[in-house]
Amino acid sequence: MSSPLPLWARRLEDMPGVNYNPPPGLDVSRLRYRDHEPQVGSSSYDGSAILDWPERDGEWSSASPASDHGDALYEEDVDAGEILRLLAECLELPGTPSDYHFLIVGAAEKLAGLAVREPRLLAEVERLCLLDLRLVQAREDIIRAPDRPEGWLHVRSFDALIRMYEQAGFLPEALEVALIAERYGQDGGRGEDLRRRLANDVAIDAV
């Protein structure tokens, strides 16, 4: 049986079920490889279908335009504005659901680190984590891992959102995320703990 063809999109906005809209005023006219399309090759490891992307020098690469453009996200001196701009540009370039997932998570974690000194950035961290959750739910194959006991890869966006909501006292919102995490085998008992805490709060309010 042949392996399924890898899925890719010209931009995240075209990915069904994600409901992503790019920021207004974003100029993507200067971005390279916006119109590039991959060819399907086969893995030298197991023969499974993979995507090869054309490069400017006529060579082919396993890195999509979105992933390649995202390398700048991980530079040490990049600031919050640059992170948000770079990510927005990445999400306008061709890539796979997995590419977009890791780019969003990487940007969210960089912003979370900067939020220690700039708490206003927590709103952007929340927005990106929620976007990642929509992507994961729309394309569950991103995190499917049949070789793992729980059957799924770990999603750091779940942890980040639950922690943020708990610290802010938003327990219903934290529980909502924990219930989604439960479906992917990575709740870690947090859902049950949040249910208990919410029940205690209701009981206290009723006294």
Question: How would you describe this structure to a colleague?
Answer:
It is a single chain. By secondary structure, the protein is mainly alpha-helical. About 45% of the residues lie in helices and about 5% in strands. The chain has a 3-stranded antiparallel β-sheet, with no helix packed on it. The protein has helices at about 65-70, 80-90, 95-115, 120-140, 155-170, 170-185, 190-205; strands spanning about 40, 50-55, 60. The protein is globular. The chain contains 7 helices and 3 strands. It has one domain (about 10-205). The termini are far apart.
Write a compact overview of the structure shown.
With 207 residues, this protein is mainly alpha-helical. It has helices at residues 65-69, 80-90, 97-114, 122-138, 156-168, 171-183, 190-206; strands at 39-42, 49-54, 60-61.
Please describe the topology of this protein:
Layout: E1 39-42, E2 49-54, E3 60-61, H1 65-69, H2 80-90, H3 97-114, H4 122-138, H5 156-168, H6 171-183, H7 190-206
Antiparallel strand pairs: 1-2, 2-3
- Taken in chain order, the helices and strands follow as EEEHHHHHHH
Q: What's the pLDDT, averaged over the residues? A: 88
Indicate the percent of residues in helices.
40-55%
Described by its quaternary structure, the protein is: single chain
Largest sheet: 3 strands, antiparallel
Total beta strand runs: 3
Q: Specify the structural class.
A: mainly alpha
Number of domains: 1
Strand order of the largest sheet: 1-2-3
The separation of the N and C termini measures 64 Å
